[in-house]
């Protein structure tokens, strides 16, 4: 049985998709399993982000399920405010994921430089995130890792959601799914309770709070510290603490998203109540989705990433893995994907942009 699967896997690694199709320009990021490169498709001249992931590191970090889960979910979705998958392939040593290129960098990079965003900038960014969340939630997908690192900008200043490694199709019994980033995880997730898409709205509230105040509402050095902080008290922005240049409506929006009990949280009755909040009432979401609005924060044309972080090398060394074993290669069976060979998806009337050099 294993030999049959191995032959299938061998065929997959020899399909027409290989790194020879792309011209590698330079590294633009670094993840837990490898670097992200800016590449150009030699035939079409379209630029993409190519994420390479070392199979040995994936296995040592016990992340095979996460990596394969992301690949499966990305094949199901396509939206103008999501970093969409265009190709996926592998060789014996690595997996390769070719995604939309987002030259504007992630929001963690920019918040590190700016410390805070203005209210107008935050409202625009949050509106983009809401559009992507509405699409995911309509398709019963919980992202579960909404944070500045996973929100990346295109050259116009529109934000796109990425990293679906711990995203899941919603199931009623999911209290065992407790992965996430402490500080952005909803209380029901960090306390190992069943959760719904409303968990993503809590993270949205954390981001508004952070962009407004320059810090996260619940802090701590460990997951336990943050859990204890959440259980200790309900954080709220008081009217006297609203920063200059921010409105009471923005404060109320953040406070209602940060409610510890999901049934009290804005969005519990559906995303419509989030979109209808007074803070967003004048936002033309249709024009936003069509990218007809001018973003109040537009990244510079230069590289928007930390070159020091990209060029750093890993200090940890995992256990050796024999990549010639049938059982090892079978872990990654079915990774191949080519968006150009897929039936047209009707998830949105807005096409994703192609970036040409």
UniProtKB/TrEMBL annotation:
User: Which Gene3D superfamilies does the record match to this protein?
Assistant: Phosphorylase Kinase, domain 1, Transferase(Phosphotransferase) domain 1
Q: Does the keyword Transcription apply?
A: no
Q: What are the protein's UniProt keywords?
A: ATP-binding, Kinase, Nucleotide-binding, Serine/threonine-protein kinase, Transferase
Q: Where does ATP bind?
A: 51
| UniProt entry tagged with the keyword Transferase | yes
Question: What are the protein's GO molecular function terms?
Answer: ATP binding; protein serine/threonine kinase activity
**What Pfam families does the annotation carry?**
Pkinase
Q: Which SUPFAM superfamilies match?
A: Protein kinase-like (PK-like)
- For the AGC-kinase C-terminal domain, which residue ranges apply? 281-347
Q: Where is the Protein kinase domain?
A: 22-280
Q: What PROSITE patterns does this protein map onto?
A: AGC_KINASE_CTER, PROTEIN_KINASE_ATP, PROTEIN_KINASE_DOM, PROTEIN_KINASE_ST
**PANTHER family according to UniProt:** G PROTEIN-COUPLED RECEPTOR KINASE, G PROTEIN-COUPLED RECEPTOR KINASE/RIBOSOMAL PROTEIN S6 KINASE
Q: Its family?
A: Belongs to the protein kinase superfamily.
Name used for this protein in its record: Protein kinase domain-containing protein
Give the species.
Answer: Stentor coeruleus
